[in-house]
């Protein structure tokens, strides 16, 4: 029995190599697992279930094929694709997860998150996140035409890229105290997240016990996945795209 975790693929038309790599992953790696967890930012942008482009339709079809092969697929929203909704879930057969949530591997609880909520030192982003994820804001966004949403997304991205250039690495990484707070509150020794694009397995002490925070890697120059096996434990794996 194995379980796979991935995040931050940022699939987009400008990077056909990423879509090809994900297709290969879905046919070669994922069928060997009992379940696949996608912890956000599968797509570089998502303008709504009613605005899917050809690439997104193709990816949805390929995920459905994996589900039909008996692999359970779970999806957690990222900061780039938080508008993915129930229509996409129904189309693919995947299950949407709350952020954060707890799953069990063996008899051990494991905390899952996309990870952006942990970057509390980035005050501007946290304020923006609170605004953009407000249900009233989401409803307003989805009421716009697709072209209006495209224009808004491009404007937000340009502003974000400009702002990030002035931010230090520490500001854009998770806040260690926030990580510890979450793990203590949820009473877990394992925490898996993405978002920061800094793949690593960090050893911690939580509740006076050894613990691990595992950061998933982004798919850019290479791909990343985390495999959990009941007999082996966790293995953070990188591979060629």
Describe this structure in words.
By secondary structure, the protein is of the alpha/beta class. The protein has a single domain (2-119, 175-239), classed as Metallo-dependent phosphatases (Purple Acid Phosphatase, chain A, domain 2, 4-Layer Sandwich). The protein contains 8 helices and 11 strands. It has helices spanning 16-28, 54-68, 86-92, 123-132, 135-143, 146-164, 169-172, 176-186, and strands spanning 2-6, 35-38, 72-76, 95-97, 101-105, 108-113, 190-193, 200-206, 209-215, 223-229, 233-239. The chain has a 6-stranded mixed β-sheet, covered by helices on one side. Helix 1 packs parallel to helix 2 (54-68). The protein is globular and about 50 Å long. It starts with a strand and ends with a strand.
Give the strand order of the largest sheet, numbering strands 1, 2, ... along the chain: 4-3-2-1-10-11
Quote the CATH topology. Purple Acid Phosphatase, chain A, domain 2
- How far do the termini sit from each other? 25 Å
Question: Helical residue percent?
Answer: 25-40%
Q: Tell how many strands the DSSP assignment holds.
A: 11
Number of helices: 8
Q: Proportion of β residues?
A: 15-25%
Return the average pLDDT rounded to an integer: 94
Number of domains: 1
Element-level helix/strand string: EHEHEHEEEHHHHHEEEEE
Structural class: alpha/beta
Q: Over the alpha carbons, how many angstroms does the gyration radius reach? A: 18 Å
């Amino acid at each position: 029995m194995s379980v796979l975790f991935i995040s931050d693929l940022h699939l987009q038309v400008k990077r056909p190599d990423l879509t090809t790599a994900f297709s290969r992953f879905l046919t070669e790696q994922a069928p060997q697992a009992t379940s696949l967890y996608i912890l956000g930012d599968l797509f570089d942008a998502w303008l709504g279930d009613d605005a899917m482009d050809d690439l997104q339709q193709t990816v949805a079809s390929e995920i459905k094929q994996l589900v039909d092969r008996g692999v359970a697929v779970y999806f957690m929203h990222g900061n780039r694709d938080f508008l993915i909704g129930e229509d996409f879930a129904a189309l693919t057969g995947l299950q949407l997860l709350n952020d954060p949530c707890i799953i069990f591997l063996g008899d051990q609880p494991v905390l899952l998150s996309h990870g952006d909520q942990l970057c509390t030192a980035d005050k501007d982003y946290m304020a923006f996140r609170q605004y953009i994820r407000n249900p009233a804001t989401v409803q307003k966004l989805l009421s716009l035409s697709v072209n209006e949403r495209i224009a808004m997304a491009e404007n937000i991205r340009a502003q974000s890229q400009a702002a990030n250039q002035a931010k230090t690495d520490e500001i854009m990484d998770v806040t260690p105290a926030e990580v510890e707070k979450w793990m203590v509150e949820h009473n877990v020794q394992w925490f898996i997240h993405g978002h920061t694009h800094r793949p690593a397995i960090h050893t911690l002490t939580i509740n006076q016990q050894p613990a691990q925070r595992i950061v998933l890697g982004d798919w850019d120059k290479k791909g990343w996945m985390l495999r959990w096996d009941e007999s082996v434990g966790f293995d953070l794996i990188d591979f060629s795209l």
